[in-house]
Structure formats: structure tokens, C-alpha cells
From TrEMBL:
Belongs to the class-I aminoacyl-tRNA synthetase family. Keywords: Aminoacyl-tRNA synthetase, ATP-binding, Ligase, Nucleotide-binding, Protein biosynthesis. The lineage of its organism: Eukaryota, Metazoa, Chordata, Craniata, Vertebrata. It comes from the Eukaryota. This is Probable arginine--tRNA ligase, mitochondrial.
């Protein structure tokens, strides 16, 4: 496996340069696969080794000098240079055998348990994502937060961290005052039970409109909220009813998306705790009253309120940011995490900067463990019902469009559960479309583009996975030690193996930047390489030795494809 080869190379280099071999091993990189000609497998950039003692020679010369002192052995079959790096080629048959055996031994943890991650695992990570607001729209931003947060949580967990997944529901505030005041007039218990999210949203919209014209409704909404805040049991039980039904419904839709949460502590959970935060700020002399009676925290360096955050309304109640401060302090205590990651759209960038600043001002030296992962806007996502209001509609739309495509191409007939398959492919399409670019960039969503079966789409990944899986029907389990390496010497196999060798580096890159696009690009290339190999290597018309070796190869490719897809949040399909 990649790390084994890195170590062998590093030992020799370390001996020649008089450096610790561990450090050298961390500087060795795999080489991206070249379409036209065979590339070396590993590369060591002289710059990564630090500054030379003799600064009169340049890095290119250093690479040549180093290469001249290294020798080929039973592992390294060729040593060369490419600009300021030394390149290494591994003995071909050894490469093939080692990579394939490693994948079949490691299965779904292949590439995730290497020394590359030694500093990045064994930590405790809290990821907060999705966080919709009950009775309000579940817009595309919440969908993005859900799939991105799920990916980050999967990734952190995969390399050996303990991960806590939190959904910080918007389950408090004036919308509940309005619902409480208007439910008896506009709501129906029957409809609520049948479709809670939709019904609450409808009631909310109606009361909201009514309250704009009718002062009494507005007043009774405020009154209901006051009763809620005051702990009135009747008000609270209605609120709880709305909340419970909504969470049940959310959980169903998250399940379709392959996402789940350990904790649904939303804003309501922090209503009392945010009063404590206000007290704490006050007793530390950090809460300043304005002329309007609101409470602010000075965030400026100069102490002149040139930048500040409002944390208290004039009636003494807390705000969104106050509840976030309370939640942050509570989570620090409850989980004593190493890192806390918030996933929201970029419009909340400023909010989180203020939050982290307040934590610092409160003397929390763990403030640097908090991180915000912002993402851009999705434009033009529409469903049959129009603008996106419910997550469910997006998933239904993806499924029905995919079913239609499958019916048109005649593939759905042979499937046991076409609807389930269509759903998994449709969701893969949504995820890939979303993860292709930089998270921070806005993008335009297009159903037809996302659902294309060729090109860099989720459909293509699913298609490739299903095709590789269908080969398994030909597979008869045999000892994996006796693979006929001679049937695996084609350039398309070598290129695929080289690509498989890179998997851990790609995961590392994703972890470093918390960006899924490296993995998406990687899996697309793996899919293309696999398809080329599938066309070039015969299984059925080959000798049983060759067939066995090739099926073993394809199954290993499929395993890595599958494990990468799962990290992205995709459920790979076996037939389509
Ligand atoms: N409910 C919020 C919204 O829909 C997102 C919550 C983000 N997380 C947080 N800790 N503030 O905009």
C-alpha cells in the first residue's frame, strides 16, 4: 500500500541525506496518473525537505544529486528526476499485488487508516449541520448544509475521530407565538398529523399574513410567546407537540438522504442558558446598554464600539447570537471537543465571526477550536411545486425524474425496486452536482445536467458501480494469494492501481480544506479508469486464471469506489 512504499523509499533517502526517515516519508507524494504515458508512482519534491545547507545549488540540481546517490532495489525499479523532484517507480508486479491485497484486506477502511492521518485522528469533533427552522421553509441552503455537514462528519469519523452530529433546530421564537395564537383558527389536528411540516408551514403563512392586518392577532402571538417563555404548561405542550411531530418528519427525510443526528438540541434548549450568558456578560462588565435599551458587546479593538454585537433586546430577551453563545459554552462543557464545526451558507459568516469573538472576550481560550464552513447559494432549483419549500419535494423530484429516465432507456424493468434505485441514483446526482465545485461558490442548478448518465455526474458514478458489481456474479471465491499477476500487466490496470494508491492523499486534502470536490474528482477519474479497463480486459473469454485475477482487480476497484461514494453520502446501487 501507499504507506509501505513511502516508507521503503524514505528509508533510503533518509540514509543518504541524514534525515529522520519518518519526516521524509511524509514528504513523499503519489504522482497523478497521466492519460497518455505511464507516469512514475511516487515523487519527492526537494522543496518539501526544507532549505538546503548549501544554498548555492538550486533544487533541480539537488534532485539530480540525490537521484544519483539512490539505487534501485527489489521494491524500487526506477529512479528519475522531474524538475525539482526525484521520481520513483515501484516494481510493477509488486505494486499490483500489494495494492490489491491491501484493499481486499482493509475493505471499507482502505486508505483511511494510514500514517498520513496520525495527527488528524483520535480527536473529538462536533459537527452542526442542517438546522432548519420549524414551520418555515426548508430551503436549498438547508439541503446544502445537510449534505455538506454529513460529508464532513463521515470524513472525520472515517479517519478515526469521535464525531457528534448536532441539528440545531430553529425551534423557538416568534413563529411559535404565531402558531400558538393561530392554530385554533387556521390549523387542523388531522392535517397536522398527516403532514406536519407542510401543515405547520401553511398555518404559519396564514397567521403571519393575518397578523399583518389584524393587530389583535399580533398581540396574541406576542402573548403566546410570553407564555411560552414563562413556562406556561399549556403553551409548552402545544409547542412540544409541533416540535415532536416535526422532528419525526425531518428524521424520515434525513434517512432518505443517509444523514442522521445524535442530538436535536435546538435554539429552545438554550433559552434559559442565554439568560445566564447575559448575566455573565453583565457581571464581567461586558454588556453595554444602548439608548434604545438594547444590550451590546463591544467587539472593537479600540473599545469604542466601532464594531459590536447586539445580544439583548430592550425587553431583556435574548437574540439568535445570544443563544449561539449559550450553545457554544454548553457544548464545550458537555463534549469537551477538540473541534466544533458549523455548516451554514455564507450569509452567516459575520454572525459566526462575532460569535467566536464573543467567546474570546469571555476568556474562552478554546475559541480557536470553533470553525465555520460557509457555502454559496444554489440558484434556480425548482420542483414541480415551484420554489423549494420542503426537502421532501427535492428528493421526490430527483426520484421521479430518474425513474422517468430509467423507463425511457428500458432499464427499470429488470429491477426489483425501481423506485428505490431511482432514489439512490437521484440523490447521488444531487450530491455530486453540489460537491463538484468550491463550496463557497454559488452555482446554478439544472436537473437535466445533474441527471445525465455520462459526464461527471452522480449517475455516472452509480452506473460504474453497478457495472463493476455485476461482474461479481462471475466471481468464485478463491485464495487471493495466488492471483495471476501476468494477467494484470496492461497499462490500463497499472494506471488504475496508481490511482488507487493516491486515495489516502485525496482524503487528506479533503480533511485539510473540508472540501468534497477533491474526492468527487478522484472518484470520477476512478470511474473512467475502471470503464477503460472494463472494455480492455476480458473476463468471460479468458482462462480461469486470468478471469480470476481480473475479477479480483475489478472487485477491489469497486470497493474503493463504493467507500468513497459512501463518504460523500451516496448509497451505491448494485443494479441499474
Ligand atoms: N436555523 C438557522 C437558519 O436556518 C441555521 C442555524 C445555524 N447554526 C447556528 N448555530 N446558528 O438560518
Amino acid at each position: 500500500m501507499a504507506w509501505h512504499f513511502r516508507r521503503v523509499i524514505a528509508e533510503q533517502v533518509a540514509r543518504v541525506l541524514g534525515l529522520p526517515s519518518e519526516r521524509v516519508a511524509h514528504c513523499i507524494r503519489t504522482v497523478p496518473v497521466h492519460r497518455k504515458h505511464e507516469s512514475p508512482d511516487f515523487q519527492l519534491f526537494m522543496t518539501s525537505l526544507g532549505d538546503p545547507i548549501d544554498t548555492s545549488i538550486n533544487h533541480e540540481e539537488r534532485a539530480q544529486q540525490l537521484a544519483g546517490k539512490l539505487v534501485c532495489d527489489s521494491v524500487i525499479s526506477d529512479i528519475g528526476t522531474a524538475r525539482a523532484s526525484v521520481t520513483f517507480k515501484i516494481n510493477r508486479d509488486l505494486l499490483t499485488r500489494t495494492v490489491l491485497q491491501q484493499i481486499s484486506k482493509d475493505g471499507s477502511i482502505y486508505g483511511l487508516n494510514t500514517e498520513l492521518f496520525s495527527g488528524l485522528s483520535g480527536r473529538k469533533t462536533v459537527v452542526e449541520y442542517s438546522s432548519p427552522n420549524i414551520a418555515k421553509k426548508f430551503h436549498v441552503g438547508h439541503l446544502r448544509s445537510t449534505i455538506i455537514g454529513n460529508f464532513i462528519a463521515n470524513l472525520k469519523q472515517a479517519v478515526g475521530n469521535e464525531v457528534i452530529r448536532i441539528n440545531y433546530l430553529g425551534d423557538w421564537g416568534l413563529q411559535f407565538g404565531l402558531l400558538g395564537a393561530g392554530f385554533s383558527k387556521f390549523g387542523s389536528e388531522e392535517e397536522l398529523v398527516v403532514n406536519p411540516l407542510q401543515h405547520l408551514f401553511e398555518v404559519y403563512v396564514k397567521v403571519n399574513t393575518a397578523a399583518e392586518e389584524d393587530k389583535d392577532i399580533k398581540l396574541s402571538a406576542q402573548e403566546f410567546l410570553r407564555r411560552l417563555e414563562g413556562g406556561d404548561p399549556h403553551a409548552l405542550s402545544l409547542w412540544m407537540h409541533f416540535r415532536d411531530l416535526s422532528i419525526q418528519e425531518y428524521a424520515k427525510v434525513y434517512k432518505r438522504l443517509g444523514a442522521h443526528f445524535d442530538d436535536y438540541s435546538g435554539e429552545s434548549f438554550y433559552k434559559e442558558k442565554s439568560q445566564e450568558v447575559l448575566k455573565q456578560l453583565e457581571s464581567n462588565g461586558l454588556l453595554q446598554k444602548t439608548d434604545k435599551g438594547t444590550g451590546v458587546v463591544d467587539l472593537s479593538e479600540e473599545g469604542n464600539l466601532s464594531s459590536y454585537s447586539t445580544v439583548m433586546r430592550s425587553d431583556g430577551t435574548s437574540l439568535y447570537i445570544t443563544r449561539d453563545v449559550a450553545a457554544a459554552l454548553d457544548r464545550l462543557e458537555r463534549y469537551s471537543f477538540d473541534e466544533m464545526i458549523y455548516v451554514t451558507d455564507k450569509s452567516q459568516k459575520n454572525h459566526f465571526q462575532q460569535l467566536f469573538k464573543i467567546l474570546k472576550i469571555l476568556g474562552k481560550d478554546q475559541a480557536d477550536r470553533f470553525q465555520h464552513v460557509p457555502f454559496g447559494l444554489v440558484k434556480g432549483m425548482k420542483t414541480r411545486r415551484g420554489e423549494v419549500v420542503f426537502l421532501e419535494d427535492v428528493l421526490d423530484e430527483a426520484r421521479s425524474r430518474m425513474l422517468q429516465n430509467m423507463a425511457a432507456s428500458g432499464t427499470s424493468k429488470q429491477l426489483e425496486d425501481p423506485s428505490d434505485t431511482a432514489e439512490k441514483i437521484g440523490i447521488a446526482a444531487l450530491i455530486v452536482q453540489d460537491f463538484k465545485g468550491q463550496l463557497l461558490s454559488d452555482y446554478h442548478f439544472d436537473w437535466d445536467q445533474a441527471l445525465q448518465s455520462t459526464g461527471d455526474t452522480g449517475v455516472f458514478l452509480q452506473y460504474t458501480h453497478a457495472r463493476l458489481h455485476s461482474l461479481q456474479a462471475l466471481w468464485c471465491s478463491r485464495d487471493t494469494d495466488d492471483i495471476d499477476i501476468a494477467s494484470l500487466r496492461e497499462p490500463c490496470v497499472i494506471a488504475t492501481l496508481q490511482h488507487l494508491l493516491r486515495y489516502d492523499e485525496v482524503i487528506y486534502k479533503c480533511l485539510e480544506d473540508l472540501q468534497p470536490r477533491y474526492l468527487v474528482t478522484y472518484l470520477m477519474s476512478l470511474g473512467h479508469l475502471a470503464n477503460v479497463a472494463h472494455r480492455a480486459l476480458h473476463v468471460k473469454r479468458s482462462s480461469s486464471e486470468a478471469a480470476h485475477a481480473r475479477l479480483f482487480f475489478f472487485n477491489n476497484v469497486r470497493m474503493v469506489l463504493s467507500s468513497g461514494m459512501k463518504l460523500l453520502g451516496i448509497s451505491p446501487v448494485n443494479n441499474m
